[in-house]
Structures are given as C-alpha cells and as structure tokens.
C-alpha cells in the first residue's frame, strides 16, 4: 500500500465504499484505473473544472472501453430536474446500459447531480467520485446521498446511491478560490464540533496555516473528516437516527440558500449561519453559551459574510417547513447539547419564528 495514501472502507447495506485520500501525481489514475478498465464510463463534470484539472483523467480515458465526458452547468445550476433529464438522454443516446459507470469530477454540486443520475438511470448504475473541492472531499462525496433542487426546496428530490470509490486528491485544492476553501472548512467544522472535538481543536489551532496549506497538509485533515462521516454513515445509511447529526446547521442553511434562489451565500456560508442559529435555539434549552461563542469566534476568523439584510423570517420559516427533516410534528432541529453531543428535536414553528426574528435582527452570525 502507498504510504502517502490514507484509506478507509465504508461498509453499508449495498456493499463497501473505498475512500482514499492523497496527494501527488498519478493518485487518481492509480486508484481508478481498474474500475474504469474496459468499461463504458460517463464522466460528469463542469467546464471550469475540466479546464483546470481535466488532464488528471487522461490516463483513465485511455483505459476505458468508451469514455464520454458530459459537461453540466457550473455550481448549483447543475442540480435541476432539467439537467438530470438531459443527462439521462445523453447517456442513453451514447450507449449507456446497466453495466455502464458514472464518474463525477467536480465539487459537491457535480457529485450530487452525477450521483442522482447514476442512482436513477436504469434504476441505478455504478458510481465513483473524484471530488475537487474541500467541501466535496470532506462531505458531499461521502455517504451516498445525492439530490437536486426544486425552486422552492433545496435537495428535495434525491436518492441514496453509494459510490464504489471516492478518490480525493488534495492537489486539486490548490486552485480553489479562498472563499470556496473557507466554505468547505465550515462543513469540516460542523463535523468536528459534533463528532470529533480533537479535530475541532486542531482546526482552531491551525486555521490560518490551513488556509494557505499545501496539498500534503490537507491529506490527514480530509481523511479524518471522511472517517468521522463514515463512522456515522456505517451505522445509519439513511437519513435517520444518528445520521441526523450531519444536518447540523442545514435546516436554516438550506432555507437561506433557497430564499436566495441558490445564487447568494455559498453552501458552507449558509450552513455557518444555520449552525449559529441552532446554537441560539440550543441555548434556550440550557446549552452553555460558551460553545456558541467558541464557534462564532472560529467562524469570524473564517470571515463568513454576514446574512443579507433582505432575508425575511416568514419566508425562511416557509422554506424550513419544506425541509426533508420536517414531518407531521414539525421540523426536527439538530441542536448541540455540548461538544460532541447533540439532540434532534421537533420544535413548533412559533418557538422557532420568535428566535429567528431576533437572530436576523442581530445580523445572524455577527461574523
Ligand atoms: N450529498 C451530500 O451529502 C452533500 C453534503 C454536503 C453538501 N452537498 C452539496 O454540495 C454542494 C456544494 O458543493 P461545493 O461547495 O463543492 O460547491 P460547487 O460544487 O458548487 O463548486 C463550487 C465552485 O468551485 C469550482 N471548483 C470546483 N473544484 C475546483 C477546483 N479544484 N479549483 C477551482 N475551482 C473549483 C466549481 O467550478 C464551482 O464554481 C451543494 O449543492 C450542497 O447541497 C451535498
């Protein structure tokens, strides 16, 4: 085994996902060559990513029996029913069958649209991810959730479809715009806060160094986050029980993204505000405010943009009410009860609305 590559296996109901994280030329090719060899492979990617890093895949293309690159719109614009329908047709027309494979090459949006199409085409064909953003490496590519957005609700149509391989090359992160890197760090912080206090302390200690880190420094961080997420998913593959921890900050975060038409704050930035709001709700239930202050201080160092002033509490409540975590008892909120501790509680809309109004009035995170 290559000593520079960190590996982890995620066992789930459908088999095993092999996760590998490393840096250095040749990683992607070495990890995926057997998986693409002599196969009909559809690569789902976006033009800017292909332009920057498409060369990393050229060896793989030569090993496949058929290699078809399918570009989707960049960013959140890829996660629509129209793009999914277009991909199904293009795959079918290009000879896609039950034993074809989908390889995604991009950030979380590409993982989601590619995973969704792979999970639905012919009732599901095999899938692997090469995530290219920090957010996708630490979160979106791991765990088998894949969804698209409706105009009125983020990630509201989706499937559980586990990838076979997730190959994370931290070399790819070198071209990420700083704001995207910071957005990814928020998901890392989310996981650290409720699953791995040592990781949180390491991020607090090394944040400024991480923001300018080289590829090899990122390898253990990304691997640590993937292991933390895999540890949850292995116990609960679907969105229930323990897996709900991963939704920390996402109920309000998704509502903010939806209210902004998926064209405002980045996903991690919206989640940062969502986490602080969840902490405010948790403090009403007795959480020590010190934890909220600790997270706010860390997010301030990340320079998370403030909440736009035109967000209205009523509209956010409406979007949150359509959240996947909502059932007939109301929206279930993931609230910290301490470091590495949390509860999932249904809260009445009236209770949340009052807190939300005060949260918005003080500008959300105050970062
Ligand atoms: N399925 C899941 O479990 C899960 C978990 C977390 C988030 N998500 C989803 O992930 C999405 C957010 O993902 P994201 O933050 O990666 O955003 P993204 O996929 O929209 O990518 C952000 C931008 O970074 C660019 N980019 C990608 N890789 C790059 C690179 N190496 N260098 C330079 N630029 C690069 C892209 O072209 C894009 O413009 C959201 O839709 C969110 O809902 C899904």
Q: Topology of this protein?
A:
Elements: E1 6-12, E2 15-22, H1 27-36, E3 40-46, H2 47-53, H3 58-63, E4 66-72, H4 81-93, E5 101-106, H5 108-120, E6 126-131, H6 134-140, E7 145-150, E8 153-160, E9 165-169, H7 178-195, H8 197-211, H9 215-233, H10 250-259, H11 267-284, H12 289-301, H13 313-321, E10 326-327, E11 330-338, E12 341-347, H14 349-361
Parallel strand pairs: 2-9, 3-4, 3-5, 5-6, 6-9
Antiparallel strand pairs: 1-2, 7-8, 10-11, 11-12
Helix pairs in contact: 4-5, 5-6, 6-7, 6-9, 7-8, 7-9, 7-11, 10-11, 10-13, 11-12, 13-14
Bound molecules: nicotinamide-adenine-dinucleotide.
Nicotinamide-adenine-dinucleotide is lined by residues 46, 48-49, 52, 74-76, 79, 106-110, 112, 132-133, 135-136, 139-140, 143, 145-146, 155, 172, 175-176, 180, 183, 267.
């Amino acid at each position: 085994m290559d000593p520079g590559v960190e590996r982890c296996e995620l066992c789930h109901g459908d088999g095993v996902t092999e996760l590998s994280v490393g840096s250095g030329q040749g990683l992607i090719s070495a990890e995926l060559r057997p998986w693409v060899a002599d196969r009909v492979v559809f690569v789902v990617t976006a033009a800017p990513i292909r332009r920057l890093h498409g060369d990393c895949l050229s060896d793989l293309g030569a090993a496949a029996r058929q290699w078809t690159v399918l570009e989707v719109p960049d960013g959140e614009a890829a996660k629509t029913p129209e793009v999914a329908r277009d991909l199904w047709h293009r795959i079918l027309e290009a000879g896609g069958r039950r034993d074809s494979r989908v390889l995604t090459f991009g950030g979380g949006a590409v993982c989601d649209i590619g995973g969704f199409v792979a999970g639905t085409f012919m009732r599901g064909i095999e899938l692997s991810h090469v995530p290219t953003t920090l957010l996708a490496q630490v979160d979106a590519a791991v765990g088998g959730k894949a969804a698209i957005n409706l105009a009125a609700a983020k990630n509201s149509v989706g499937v559980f479809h586990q990838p076979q391989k997730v190959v994370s090359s931290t070399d790819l992160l070198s071209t990420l715009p700083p704001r995207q890197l910071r957005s990814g760090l928020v998901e890392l912080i989310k996981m650290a806060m409720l699953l791995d206090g040592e990781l949180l302390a390491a991020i607090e200690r090394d944040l400024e160094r991480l923001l300018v880190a080289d590829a090899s420094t990122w390898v253990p961080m990304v691997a640590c986050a993937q292991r933390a997420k895999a540890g949850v998913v292995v116990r609960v593959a679907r969105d229930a029980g323990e897996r709900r921890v991963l939704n920390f900050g996402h109920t309000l975060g998704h509502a903010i993204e939806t209210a902004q038409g998926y064209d405002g704050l980045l996903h991690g930035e919206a989640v940062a505000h969502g986490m602080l709001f969840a902490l405010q709700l948790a403090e009403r239930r007795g959480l020590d405010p010190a934890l909220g202050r600790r997270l706010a201080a860390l997010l301030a160092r990340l320079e998370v943009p403030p909440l736009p002033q035109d967000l209205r509490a009523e509209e956010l409540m409406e979007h949150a009410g359509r959240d996947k975590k909502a059932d007939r008892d109301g929206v279930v909120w993931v609230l910290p009860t301490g470091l590495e501790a949390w509860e999932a509680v249904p809260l009445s809309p009236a209770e949340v609305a009052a807190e939300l109004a005060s949260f918005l009035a003080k500008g959300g995170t105050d970062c």
